[in-house]
Amino acid sequence: MGEWLYLIIGIAVLVVATTAGLLASGRRKTPPAPRDTTGVISSTTTQAPPGTSAEAPVETPLEAPAAPLVERPEGTASRLVRLRQRLAGSQGALGRGLLALLSRDRLDEDTWESIEDTLLTADIGVAPTQELVDRLRSRLRTEGSQADARAVLREELLTLVDPSMDRRLQVSGADGQPGVVLVVGVNGAGKTTTVGKIGRILVAEGRTVVMGAADTFRAAAVEQLVTWGERVGVDVVRGPEGTDPASVAFEAVKEGSARGVDTVLVDTAGRLQNKAGLMDELGKVKRVIEKQAPVTEVLLVLDATTGQNGLIQARVFSEVVDVTGIVLTKLDGSAKGGIVVAVQRELGVPVKLVGLGEGADDLAPFDAEAFVDALLG
Ligand code: GDP
């Protein structure tokens, strides 16, 4: 009798446990996220996410994933008109301030000092400020009251910004290889956003692109890049969190070459706590990529609102990799456009792009004349 009792209790426990298990699994409506492996292409446009079919063999998901809508990025002409207005909005105060001072009847020492202060506040830097003030003083003295202060200021600002620099992005490769753009900078500068935005510009121009999410230390950065890619139908090569960034970069360029795309954009990690570590990491990323194809552009992303700090970062990165162009982000939130002059002087490398907002198409090629005109309002 005792044995029967144990048997019945045993069966009852088994039934309860099985029912509970079924309920728990029934509550999970979505299949588990696919596990990443190095070099997996994250694509919603050309292939199903790996692992989904194996992990949900019986039940069909209650909600079928919606087909992603591929956006059409804003065209060049309207983007430039819109962004120039935004640039004038954020930077115009500098030019207006300078013109008001230069238009005074008497340009005494106090006025020149105020002009200097205005330029320094806009982060132009000490040496360029001194040069500009000296040039303005001597020109306005010799040209006297005939001088058109605005025209003189425009000319001299333009000289400082240097319209002769080649600001074209090298996004094309040679010998049938893709152009490879490596994007570097400290965390928070706007690297991942910039990679996404450049991808959109290239897509808008009809180019084919693959992106590499080599900032493998931040899962959020990888997801962010995948989202940017999905929006315009660009595939992203990614690896699990903590993978060697160089291996992801390598796979991305390999994939881009195999597909014959025009450009591979590679996002990188930006941990600056240790220069030697950064040097090792970025150096390795570049070396490993170049086993596949030459890097055609190394873009350093700098947050325009960080002033002197940005310049220090610029120095460190330029010692680590051969920076070929600067992207200045967050110019929309800062009246410190003078940093363009300071950072170009510091690195001897042109500002090629400027970020003017968090919107997907808020990235513009840098144009010296348009910039100076925006400063002058
Ligand atoms: P990362 O860590 O360098 O990859 O930086 P993220 O790309 O994640 O960007 C950090 C933050 O800066 C995000 O909130 C972006 O939306 C923002 N951001 C990037 N570029 C710009 C810009 O040009 N203007 C503004 N206002 N915000 C920007």
For this structure, what is the CATH class of the largest domain?
Alpha Beta
The level of helicity is 40-55%
So, the CATH homologous superfamily of the largest domain? P-loop containing nucleotide triphosphate hydrolases
Report the biggest beta sheet as strand number plus sense, adding barrel if it closes: 9 strands, mixed
Within the largest sheet, what's the order of strands?
A: 1-4-3-5-2-6-7-8-9
Radius of gyration: 27 Å
The percent range for strand residues is 5-15%
**Overall spatial form:** elongated
CATH topology of the largest domain: Rossmann fold
Q: How does the helix and strand content classify structurally?
A: alpha/beta
- How much is the average pLDDT? 84
Looking at how many chains there are and whether they match, the oligomeric state comes to single chain
Number of folding domains? 2
Written account of the structure:
The protein has two domains: 76-161, Four Helix Bundle (Hemerythrin (Met), subunit A), CATH 1.20.120.140; 179-367, Rossmann fold (3-Layer(aba) Sandwich), CATH 3.40.50.300. It has 13 helices and nine strands. Helix content is 50%, strand content 12%. Strands 1-4-3-5-2-6-7-8-9 form a nine-stranded mixed sheet, sandwiched between helices. The radius of gyration is 27 Å and the shape is elongated. Helix 8 (219-232) links the parallel strand 3 and strand 4. The protein is an alpha/beta fold and 377 residues long. Residues 185, 187-193, 221, 270, 329-330, 332-333, 355-358, 362 line the site of guanosine-5'-diphosphate.
